[in-house]
Design brief:
It is an enzyme of class 7 (translocase). Helix content is 67%, strand content 1%. The protein contains 14 helices and 2 strands. A two-stranded antiparallel ribbon has the order 1-2.
Amino acid sequence: MELLVSVWQVVDLPLAIFLVINLLLVTASLLVYAERVVSAFIQERSGPNRVGPRGLLQPFADVFKLLFKEDIVPTAGNGFIHSLAPVLMVVIAMSTAAVIPFAGSAAGGPVVIADVSVGLLLILAMTSISVYGITLAGWASNSKYSLLGGLRSSAQMISYELAMGAAALSVVLYAGSLSMFDIVESQNEWGILGWNIFRNPVGFVVFAVCALAETNRAPFDLPEAEQELVGGYHTEYSGMKFGMFFLAEYVNLWIASMVVATLFLGGYLLPFQGFFVDVLGVDGLLLTALQMITLVAKTAFFAFCFIWIRWTLPRFKYDQLMNLGWKYLLPIAIANIFVIALVVIGLFFGFGVFEGRTIPGLGL
C-alpha cells in the first residue's frame, strides 16, 4: 500500500498535466464547431452538417487536412523563428491553465496543477508574453503584411494590458491576495452577491473587454484584418503551423473565459453553495465534482458570449482601438481602483466585514 501511495505521489502531477492538455485540445475543437454553429444561426444559414452527426466531426477533419498540407517557409524568412512562433503561442496558451483552480478539495485546498501565491500575476505575465509569438511570426516571415500585423499586435497589447492589470488589481483589493484560490474563496463571503461581477461591475466590464482584445478576435482582430493585411501575421503560414495558430486562438478563448469566470463569477463556487453544503450536506468528492462542472458551465457561457460578439460587432479601426484603450478603459480602470479601495477601507473600519484580514501598506 505504501508503494502504491509513493508511486501515485510521483505520477499524479504528470497525469494531471496530461489530462489538462488533452482536454484543452478537445475543447479547442469543440469551440471551432460551436463557433460555426453559432455564426450559422446568427446569419440564418446552414452550419457544418456533412462530417459526422450534425457536422460534429468537422473540426477533426480540418485537423487531418492541415496535417497533410505542404509546409511552406519563405525563402528569405528566418526558418527557425518561423517554426518557433506558433509553438510559442500554443505553449503559453496551455501553460496559463496551470494556476487556475478547478475546484476546492476535500482537504480545504484547491484542485489545481500549480498552487502559487501570485497566480494572478503569473497569468497577466503569461498573456503578455504571448504577443511575442505574433510579433516573431510577422518578423520571421519577411513579409510587409505579416510584419504590419505583428507590429499592430504589439501596439494593441500595450493599449489594453494596462487597463487589464488595473481591473485585475480591483479584484485583488477585495481578496487581499494574488492567489487565484484566495480570490475565488473571497467571493464566497456574501453568497452569490459576493461575486465580483456584482460588487465590482466596472472592473468586470473593463477586464472582459480587455480579455476579448487579448484573444485577437473580432472586433479586435487587427493583427489579422483580412481586408487590410491579407492574413496578417500568419499570411506566410500553411499546413499545421497555421493550424497551431488556430489552436492557440481557441485555447486562448477558453482560458480567457475561464479567467473571467474565476475573477468575477465566483470561479468554481456553486450558486447558493451554502445551501448545498449546509442544508443538503453535499461535501467531499461530490462537491468537488459539482464545482468542476460549475466552472466549466461558467466558462462555456463566457466563451459563447465571445463568439456572439465576434459575429455581431464590426471590426474597430486602428485609431478607435487606441482611443478605447488609452482614453477610456485605462482612466475608468484607475478610477475604479480608488473607488474599490475606499469601499474596502469603509467596510474594514465601519462594518468589520474584513475582520482578521490585513490591509497591505497601511499596517492594519
